[in-house]
Amino acid sequence: MDRLREIMRRLRDPQTGCPWDIEQSFATIAPYTIEEAYEVADAIERQAWDELKGELGDLLFQSVFHAQMAEEAGMFTFDEVADTMSDKMVARHPHVFGDESRDKSAEQQTRDWETIKAAERAGKAQKGILDGVAIGLPALLRAVKLQKRAARVGFDWPDIGPVLDKITEEAHEVAEARDTLGPEELRDEIGDLLFVVANLARHLNVEPEEALRHANAKFERRFRGIERRLAAEGRSPEQATLDEMDAHWEAEKRAERAGSN
Predict the structure, then answer these.
(1) CA-CA distances (angstroms) from residue 243 to 37, 234, 246, 254?
(2) Which end of the chain is least crowded, N or C, by CB within 10 Å?
(3) Quick one: 128-206 is in which CATH superfamily?
(4) Cβ-proximal residues to 190 (8 Å cutoff; 6+ apart), any chain
(5) What is the pTM for the complete model shown?
(6) What ranges does the record give for the region Disordered, renumbered to this chain (predicted)?
């Protein structure tokens, strides 16, 4: 860790460092931080364990980069970042580091965790129920976090029935509005639909971000299957009709089901 931090200091040295690293700021590095977190998730999703070590290193380096810039600005140091995290984990796990009993369910521990976090927010003068939900989160993840916060004070549907009804309602509104609304209004209608779908996922204890990643991977896998099947016929997707590609898509689905049995 000391070596990594020294490398970061050298990279940011105004006289002898790397011009690119010297020019960076919190704002310019933040997108890379998000990207590296997704690459960690991608390696785990693919079970690419040989890649995970490097991806975790890339993500760690992002923390070191931000901390170095903060230290240069006189804000805080990497050691303070680590101390803050250590203090937070100890405070949020009194059943491990304190005298509370560990004899409780994971669900109860989750409720206790949220209670502790609420107290922390109160200490930061975050008075609103939705205060502190990071704006920079992926939109689906942030939607679920906002919904969970609202649900704590009873602003929530009691079961999935009304949620499914709301999805139908929002889908109808999109269909009705597609030819009459402008781009911004249509964007809002699609946003409403996605927000309710995220709510359905939450009620079913499904992470919508993870579900969409799976759907993306499935689409990519099956479309590549279409390309392989067409290539075996000496053709490309551009040379095939929609009906032909759809037939290959269905063949890929059947092959996947047969392979999973």
Answers:
(1) 39, 17, 5, 17
(2) C
(3) MazG-like (1.10.287.1080)
(4) 174
(5) 0.63
(6) 230-261
